[in-house]
Design a protein that fits this description.
This protein folds into five domains: 264 residues, 7-stranded beta/alpha barrel, CATH 3.20.110.10; 90 residues, Substrate Binding Domain Of Dnak, Chain:A, Domain 2; 81 residues, Immunoglobulin-like (Sandwich); 250 residues, Distorted Sandwich (Beta-galactosidase, Chain A, domain 5); 77 residues, Immunoglobulin-like. It is 23% helix and 34% strand. It contains 13 helices and 45 strands. The two termini are 44 Å apart. One of its GO terms (biological process) is oligosaccharide catabolic process.
Length: 807
């Protein structure tokens, strides 16, 4: 066996939060690092590998002397910085921009503090890995990747070592850890015996990860002694304490050809895509709020001299920490989620405050004429494309329908009063739909108590029907479910059977749902309690339907807008059913169906086999319609959920998984014990139904999904002079297949970063227009490419394409 080699990777898997709180994880990081440093003093051959920049920052701030020792060992090459990310996150649920920030802050921290960056991505315990990670890793300075889950029983792969490739062509050399990422025994022989079999099957070198883990600990004295003893035996392979970097260097230079794999690495712990709705909704909101605030803060600095906030990085670090796989996945103890809410709340507060400073600096500089009969409402569109957006806001004094609304030129805008969030006299919410400029604003003018208030016909509604010029909805009077979603323009019925069904699913699995891939044991559908017309107006009409199952209730408000080609559904849940799931089901009326899911900064096509799939904010079923030989589809987008499945002809959105907190198989629940369930109680979210001719690419589903999650901002202004016109655009990308996804100040504070990605697997050119910096540039996109450009403040410097680390 001496012609074979085991690279012994001394590590300690550190869960900073799981069955304990982060404060305990904090202490365990220090204890583990101290132990690793002590082993280095005892044995000159010992090498240690550890990821997660967050841990190093903890030690730097809390124990500078230990941090100095670590820096010395890193310099010697005996302490390997792996991972390059802030933490080992869940690798499905974070947004594309959140994955970018993991590398941006992790790699830049390593470079600043240690003079080097990680070259190996390292997520050994994450519960599956989205298919766009190779591109994100590669553009964050990492050429290799180490993972363990899914295990071979969950995902067949072409080899233990392979090239993992994204749809854009980026690839990283990838290694799936055999068996486990840590060792519990003192003697390592039983662990090495497992790998001898794989070496005999043809591999010349493998990595074996050893050291006590999860709650930290790391390699023990007995582990190291055992390695030396085993290495002296002829029946054992060469065993050297090494780094992942050296392993991958050897593998790439050994002359062998390794297979390529394109796609995601799934499925492990399918329940984690949905369990604990609160943490997943807070994550979505925090990500979106920070990105939105950074964009407007960049504009406000250039246009108005508003200082760019210094606390975005700290806010992002809190979000990134909460994306640790045992936090965001929903598998930690209840008190850990109180801590998580503090961090998400901090991030959202920073984002909200910064956003307000930015847009009010801009709105105060708009030239608005004095007119005591008029209230100016400045509406900001945070998306870098123009389009029809839903706007609603509280207006004091709006107490009757004798009002009118115009755009900045005086053209009438259809508007309606809807119920105020307050229960007082003299106040309503104002609702309207308007075409807003790309990453820009417009002043709308509200006139109260006027004699010439417009009277526009309402969107057609009864207690069983909703209809506009494009769509007609019909609800079954007995069940309360949608029995028809009819596309009038295409003359096609979208639904095969009743849709919007609220199916209660039995789920007696543990929190992770280990070794479970489908959730299809249906207990029954929720039953209609009542159905009524909630709103009837010129902008939208709405039917409210309430449903019941045992002691649980769900309200679905189906909203149809005069000027929009999709259905909006607001969902309110009060759930009290232990060990259940709730799914919303929409069966589609077409054949040769192709399921597609959004993944971070991309998409993936999967099978309609009923298995639970992770996704971002939208999923789609497209096929050939049964009535006509035309391509047709239905997309569903939402603002809080990440778990979906498509089963033959049915689209299913998983609303919740009401498991016991941190229940890990094989622990059996005891009948006489009371447990806390993760999704008991109240929650709200919104989803939209987007019927479309052609594919989802033809329907701008990516944009519609973002508009559901990030709504226009409003400021009720006053009259003042200013240098800005009453309508303006600060940023746009002229392209039908690429979208801008983030705008921020560069980390080096010498310019603005604009990030965009190609959404439709099409190569092409796009024109980036940045009026607020007086810049314009033509960009070339390859299919599915994430592109980042830097616009220096110094106009003598050209626009530069940079990687995700801004280098």
């Amino acid at each position: 066996m001496k012609d074979k080699k085991l690279y012994m990777i001394g590590n300690a898997h550190l869960d900073p939060v799981w069955l304990w709180n982060w404060q305990e994880g904090f202490q365990e990081v220090k204890a583990t690092f101290r132990s690793a440093l002590d082993r280095m003093k005892e044995d000159k051959d010992f090498v240690f590998t550890c990821s997660s920049a967050a841990f190093y920052e903890w030690v730097e701030k809390n124990n500078p002397a230990m941090f100095a020792e670590i820096r010395k060992r890193v310099e010697e090459g005996r302490w390997e910085l792996a991972g390059g990310w802030w933490i080992q996150p869940d690798c499905n649920i974070p947004s594309g921009e959140a994955f970018v920030r993991q590398g941006l802050y992790g790699q830049r921290y390593f470079l600043e503090k240690f003079g080097k960056m990680a070259v190996t991505g390292y997520n050994v315990d994450s519960f599956g890995h989205n298919g766009n990670l190779p591109q994100i890793l590669k553009k964050s300075g990492m050429d290799n990747y180490v993972f363990m889950r899914p295990m071979p029983l969950e995902k067949g792969l072409p080899g233990r070592i392979f090239w993992w490739k994204s749809m854009d062509g980026s690839k990283v050399m990838t290694y799936r850890i055999p068996y486990e990422y840590c060792s519990w025994g003192k003697d390592l022989e039983k662990y090495t015996d497992r790998l001898k079999c794989e070496l005999e099957d043809g591999e010349d070198e493998l990595m074996m990860f050893y050291g006590v883990g999860n709650h930290g600990g790391g390699p023990t004295k007995e582990n190291i002694r055992s390695i030396h003893e085993l290495n002296g035996r002829e029946d054992m392979p060469v065993m050297e304490m090494e780094t992942t970097e050296n392993f991958f260097r050897q593998v790439k230079n050994n002359g062998k050809e390794y297979p390529e794999f394109i796609g995601d690495l799934q499925h492990h712990a399918s329940g984690c895509y949905s369990v604990l709705s609160r943490v997943k909704r807070e994550n979505r909101r925090a990500e979106d709020k920070l990105v939105e605030a950074e964009g407007w803060s960049s504009i406000a600095k250039a246009v108005e001299g508003q200082p760019y906030p210094e606390d975005f990085k700290k806010a992002w670090k809190g979000v990134l920490f909460n994306q640790f796989h045992d936090i965001l996945a929903g598998t930690s103890i209840p008190s850990a989620y109180e801590d998580a809410s503090y961090l998400f709340g901090q991030a959202m507060a920073v984002g909200q405050e910064s956003l307000n400073y930015a847009i009010q600096a801009i709105s105060w500089d708009i030239d608005i004429e004095e007119d005591v009969t008029m209230r100016p409402i400045v509406v900001f569109n945070s998306h870098a494309w123009e389009g029809k957006m839903i706007i609603d806001l509280e207006v004091r004094g709006l107490s009757n329908d004798n009002f009118k609304l115009t755009d900045h030129k005086g053209n009438g805008i259809a508007a309606q009063r809807i119920q105020s969030e307050a229960t007082v006299n003299g106040q309503s919410r104002l609702l309207f739909v308007a075409e807003l400029p790309s990453m820009g604003y417009e002043v709308f003018k509200l006139y109260l108590n006027v004699e010439d208030a417009p009277r526009t016909a309402a969107v057609k509604v009864t207690d069983t029907t909703l209809e506009n010029d494009r769509l007609a909805l019909t609800f079954n009077p007995q069940t309360g479910y949608m029995e028809s979603l009819y596309d009038k323009k295409a003359d096609l019925e979208v639904l095969r059977r009743q849709g919007g069904r609220l199916a209660v699913i039995e789920d007696k699995y543990d929190t992770w749902a280990h070794n479970v891939f489908k959730f299809d044991r249906q207990l029954g559908d929720m039953k209609q309690v009542y159905r009524k017309v909630l709103e009837e107006g010129p902008v939208r009409s709405c039917i409210r339907i309430k449903y019941k199952y045992n002691q649980s209730y769900v309200v679905q408000d189906f909203r149809l807008y005069r000027d929009l080609d999709y259905v909006q559904v607001k969902v309110s849940v009060d759930w009290r059913e232990p060990q259940t799931q709730l799914k919303i089901k929409y069966p589609v009326n077409f054949n040769f169906r192709r399921p597609t899911y959004e993944i971070p900064y991309g998409y993936i096509e999967k099978s309609a086999n009923g298995e639970e799939e992770p996704g971002q904010s939208w999923f789609d079923f497209t096929g050939e319609h049964f009535k006509k030989p035309v391509m047709y589809g239905l997309a569903i987008a939402n603002d809080a959920k990440y778990s979906y499945n498509m089963d033959i002809d049915e689209m299913n959105l998983t609303v919740l998984k009401n498991s016991v907190f941190a229940h890990h198989d094989p622990k059996q629940l005891e009948e006489d014990c009371e447990y806390r369930f993760v999704d008991d109680g109240l929650q709200e979210f919104t989803y939209i139904l987007i019927p479309h001719e052609g594919s989802w690419k033809d329907a701008d589903v990516v944009k519609r999904a973002k508009e559901v999650n990030v709504r226009p901002q409003t400021v009720i202004e006053t009259f003042h002079e200013g240098k800005l016109a009453q309508r303006g655009s600060f940023l746009s990308l002229e392209s039908d297949h690429a979208v801008i996804c983030a705008v921020k100040e560069a980390e080096d504070k010498d310019g603005v970063i604009v990030r965009a990605y190609e959404t439709k697997k099409q190569a092409g050119r796009a024109v980036l227009k940045v009026p607020f910096l007086n810049r314009e540039e033509e960009l070339t996109f390859t299919p599915c490419e994430i592109k980042t450009v830097k616009l220096p403040y110094d106009h003598s410097c050209p626009i530069q394409e940079v990687n995700l680390l801004e280098f």
